[in-house]
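Lab intake sheet, docking and co-folding queue.

SAMPLE TYPE: protein with bound small molecule
LIGAND NAME: 6-O-phosphono-beta-D-fructofuranose
LIGAND FORMAT: SMILES
REQUESTED OUTPUT: full 3D complex as structure tokens
PRIORITY: normal
SUBMITTED BY: R.K., bench team

The fields below were copied directly from the construct record.
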Amino acid sequence: MEGESKAEKKLVYGDWGYVLDDVPHLTDYLPDLPTYPNPLQDNPAYSVVKQYFVNSDDTVTQKIVVQKNSPRGIHFRRAGPRQRVYFESDEVRACIVTCGGLCPGLNTVIREIVCGLYDMYGVTKILGIEDGYKGFYARNTVTLTPKSVNDIHKRGGTILGTSRGGHDTLKIADSIEDRGINQVYIIGGDGTQKGASVIFEEIKMRGLKVAVAGIPKTIDNDIAVIDKSFGFDTAVEEAQRAINAAHVESESVENGIGLVKLMGRYSGFIAMYATLASRDVDCCLIPESPFYLEGKGGLLEYIEKRLKENGHMVIVVAEGAGQQLIAESMRTMDHADASGNKLLLDVGLWLSQKIKDHFATARKKMPINLKYIDPTYMIRAVPSNASDNVYCTLLAHSAIHGAMAGYTGFTVGPVNGRHAYIPFYNITEKQNKVVITDRMWARLLSSTNQPSFLSKKEIEEGTRKEEVPQTQLLDEGNSRANEKAEEQLEHNGPVSNGSI
Ligand SMILES: Nc1ncnc2c1ncn2[C@@H]1O[C@H](COP(=O)(O)OP(=O)(O)OP(=O)(O)O)[C@@H](O)[C@H]1O
Ligand SMILES: O=P(O)(O)OC[C@H]1O[C@](O)(CO)[C@@H](O)[C@@H]1O
Ligand SMILES: [Mg+2]
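RESULT FIELD (auto-filled):
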């Protein structure tokens, strides 16, 4: 595994605690690059759209819930087309790579990068890198054209293939340089964006005119700052089918229990949203909310109560939930995948067995009928739904406009509904997690009526121990720069020492 990125921050301060957390630009290290008029200016399809071009000063605020005296806080550069670009159409040699696990919508993003570059900017030289990062140096490339990608959004997976591990920065940068590639579109999760960040640093060190753009992908919705990751809605929708099946099975037998395991390694968003959407779920277990089995207030007591009340119940468990409990009850070895991600113990099977064992004891005299459904890969191997397809289009277009405008070392995504260019470190330093002290988790608890499995004191201590992550679900921003903005406002009042 390569080292972590040593990214420099470009913070620009404005009035009333305004901070622009800006992304790098090619001119930061190649100051004399020529610019050209954006070819979209002559495109009849766009000429009717008033204000199609983004004002160069437009920024997107990270914090939208504010008080009368709160500082303006962190902002990101707004995504979209600029009047002037740093590449001529026939100069562009773009490449696209997909890394990490699958996610609905990967093919749509690939399609829209190819078609967007072609239709909006007249770019015809686009290469696909096969099988993730290692494809840069271990595989041949494929030529991508609007024709070759025309139908791919209707398919799940990625036509380019993907992989974990194999990130060799120097070999990747050599490949980019040798092939004359000058725009690199990298689609992947937190690990992939860390990889993109170190590729950008290497490209910058070599002084190459190469724009590196990341498109965040994660079925787990564990990428910070952005509102939501593409494919997430599709996955939640697909998970409904498993939950429905669990419900039908459980209510058709005496003391039926339907147990569904869903993805979510460190973040339980899929389980939480699938539970909230379904309304048939009686208990949702996620990695962020510890639980225990035995004794008063434990899971087994709750199951017994629910079966007595209702005759059946549905449990949804995220794959990363209860890992500590399983490790305590089994002798386990630490295993990791090729990217260094910890391999999880199967909470679904373990929990099924624990529940069966508990109710099988003579003392209980309560025969149960448990059906375990594991749709894990089924929810991510499907094509993206309509709303994810539109979202993927916007992500692809934002990335293209940013690269054409000379921005580099950035990732794209919606922040409070507006697409923005976000420096890599914002999304690689922290993971987005469900905050169990947030109102959304309270909504879930009131929908399932499950116990929290924690005392008030434990919740408070738990959230203090781990810094609360920045998420779209929180009212309070907590990034370092936001704190800096608050400090600045407190000590100096409204000062302006930046260019905006
Ligand atoms: N710190 C890092 N530095 C450089 N490359 C990395 C780093 N972490 C991961 N990578 C590379 O990024 C690629 C994808 O990483 P990983 O398998 O962790 O998936 P991911 O992008 O996090 O996606 P997901 O976890 O959502 O499936 C791999 O090729 C891996 O080698
Ligand atoms: O089996 P794979 O491909 O490593 O993927 C499994 C992991 O990928 C994820 O879907 C993240 O992309 C996790 O939820 C899951 O643990
Ligand atoms: Mg990851």
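REVIEWER NOTE: The longest strand covers residues 256-262.
SIGN-OFF: pending second check by T.M.
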